[in-house]
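User: Show me a protein chain along with its predicted structure.
Assistant: Here is one chain, sequence first, then structure tokens.
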Amino acid sequence: MEPTRVLSGRKVLRVVWLPGSDRLQGNCHCGAVHIADDPVEVWTWLLAHPVGHEAPAADPPPPARPEPALATAGAGS
């Protein structure tokens, strides 16, 4: 059965066979391409390549400020 749709998105990695050869082409969602004879090499590249594609980590929350100390009446007031 022929596929009816093609997946897309930021997490889709694709490996395609280049007809007429024994070569495979790895395609990253960012448009980067890597061609090799060895499927392990293609997948190793694809799985290592997306470093930096993840959304940047959220900024850490600002440090909690301690509650201001209450002024107390000094002795002898």
